[in-house]
Amino acid sequence: MATSTGITRSSRIFFSQPQLQSQPLLLFSKGFSAKVFVKGLSFSSTEKKIVEAFSEFGKVIEAKLVMDKARNRPKGYGFVTFAEKEAAEKACEGMNGKLLDGRAVYVRF
């Protein structure tokens, strides 16, 4: 009994399933980190300056400035990732409205 593809029922090829690895795969995650949004940053701000300013509230994992590709300078906002949620909450309270590089910054969790 041939089908339109020319393969008969008896000529099917069964592929074996790939063998599962004996060791579990590790998924990378930041654990219980917390990210805050920072706006009102100066165009002369650097990630290093932001890390220095926010590190007084807790361990900073990463500071990321959103860059304007055409002008090759920060757009005026970015994100700071803390190792703990409590540090992010303290930073929201402590840095909201404070001056950083001559401009008032606003932080939201």
Q: How confident overall, as mean pLDDT?
A: 83
Which class do the helix and strand fractions yield? alpha+beta
Main sheet properties: 4 strands, antiparallel
Strands side by side in the biggest sheet: 2-3-1-6
Choose one word for the global shape.
globular
What integer value in Å does the Rg equal? 26 Å
Our measurement of the CA-to-CA distance between the termini, rounded to an integer number of angstroms, reads: 66 Å
Query: In what range is the share of β-strand residues?
Result: 25-35%
- As residue ranges, the low-confidence spans are 20-30
Count of DSSP H/I helices:
2
Number of strands: 6
What fraction, in percent, of the residue positions are helical?
10-25%
- Reading the helices and strands in chain order gives EHEEHEEE
Per-chain topology:
Blueprint: E1 34-39, H1 47-54, E2 60-68, E3 73-82, H2 85-95, E4 99-100, E5 103-104, E6 106-108
InterPro entries: Nucleotide-bd_a/b_plait_sf (IPR012677), RBD_domain_sf (IPR035979), RRM_dom (IPR000504), SLIRP/GR-RBP-like (IPR052462)
Domain RRM: 34-109
Keywords: RNA-binding
Notes on the structure:
By secondary structure, this protein is an alpha+beta fold. Helices cover 17% and strands 29% of the residues. It is built from 2 helices and 6 strands, in the order E-H-E-E-H-E-E-E. It has helices at 47-54, 85-95; strands at residues 34-39, 60-68, 73-82, 99-100, 103-104, 106-108. The strands form 2 sheets. A 4-stranded antiparallel β-sheet has the order 2-3-1-6, with helices on one face. A two-stranded antiparallel ribbon has the order 4-5. Strand 2 (60-68) and strand 3 form a beta hairpin. The longest helix has 11 residues, at 85-95. The termini are far apart.
